[in-house]
Every structure is written in structure tokens, then in C-alpha cells.
Write a structure and sequence with these properties.
The protein is of the alpha+beta class and 168 residues long. 45% of the residues lie in helices and 13% in strands. A hairpin with a 6-residue loop joins strand 2 and strand 3 (31-35). It starts with 8 loop residues before the first strand and ends in a 14-residue tail after the last helix.
């Protein structure tokens, strides 16, 4: 998804024009204002630093037009509040679901990146081990060649010949 930084402003700091989208951060409830061109993009809340998806213009206009919320009393018989043709309670539930899904995705992202970092550390340890093995291999070959040279010089005295290189 596209990301747009530096769009988020406090409503008290800027005049809200007809081209702006006014909405609240789902984490901390801070009122945010962005230009309509940021619709659907991800912005950072300046208060809680949460990634927030800018809602569609029609949704933000409906939420802006809605009256201040009354204290919620659980009632199964009370009809859902509607603004125009939009069921605000349903939209809030969907927003809560999406927030939960985003948090779950962020948790999974962290888990996967942690596993990748762990695998990278294992590969780096193995590379260090390979470098040590290579160094040991070179030292053994060097000593092998020295011993073969000593045997070759002593072969005149009747010692049987040995191969010049070790078998790999």
C-alpha cells in the first residue's frame, strides 16, 4: 500500500478546507487532517506514531457530520445509528476489525523478520566456521608439504616414498 508522510496535522494548527479529510486516529483518538489526495494512504499519527490508513472522503465526511457520541448503553432493541445511508456502528466495528488485523500482521511481520535475522546469524556463524576450517586446512597442507620434503630428502637413505599430496 502507498505511504504518505508529513500529511498529518492537528486540527487546531490548520484550517480545515473542503479538500481535507478529517478523521481520528484509531489508537489514541487524536483528530487528524489530511489533504484529500492522501485518501487510502498510510500516515503516521503525530501523537502515538501509529500507522493510520486515511479513510475514504465519503466516510470521513459522514463521521465529521455525525453528532457527538452519546454514552453507549448496551441495548439489543436500539436500532443502529445511521448517517445518510452509512451505518456508523458497523463502520466502527469494521474499523476495529481492521485495526486488529493490522496489529496481527505487524506481529507476524516482527516474527518473520526475527526468524530471518536469526537465520542470518546462523549463516554468519557457519561462514566464520568455514573460514577457520580453511585456515586449518592450509596449515595442515603446509605441514604436509614440509614432511614430504623431509621424506624426499631422506629417501636416499632407503625410506619408502610417500604421495606428494594428501587425499581429499
Amino acid at each position: 500500500m502507498a505511504r504518505k508522510d508529513n500529511f498529518v496535522q492537528q486540527t487546531g494548527e490548520a484550517d480545515v478546507s473542503s479538500r481535507d479529510i478529517l478523521f481520528e486516529c484509531p489508537s489514541c483518538g487524536k483528530s487528524l487532517v489530511v489533504d484529500e489526495s492522501a485518501e487510502g494512504l498510510i500516515v503516521d499519527c503525530p501523537q502515538c506514531q501509529t500507522n493510520v490508513i486515511v479513510p475514504p472522503r465519503t466516510l470521513s465526511a459522514a463521521v465529521k457530520a455525525e453528532a457527538p457520541p452519546e454514552p453507549v448503553v448496551a441495548s439489543l432493541t436500539k436500532p443502529a445509528e445511521k448517517v445518510g445511508s452509512i451505518d456508523v456502528a458497523t463502520l466502527h466495528r469494521r474499523l476495529d476489525q481492521l485495526t486488529s488485523q493490522l496489529k496481527e500482521l505487524q506481529t507476524q511481520w516482527t516474527e518473520v523478520t526475527s526468524r530471518i535475522a536469526s537465520h542470518i546469524n546462523e549463516v554468519n556463524r557457519d561462514l566464520v566456521g568455514l573460514a577457520r576450517l580453511e585456515t586449518s586446512h592450509k596449515q595442515i597442507l603446509k605441514e604436509w608439504n614440509q614432511v614430504v620434503g623431509e621424506i624426499a630428502s631422506a629417501s636416499a637413505s632407503g625410506i619408502p616414498a610417500v604421495p606428494e599430496r594428501p587425499v581429499k
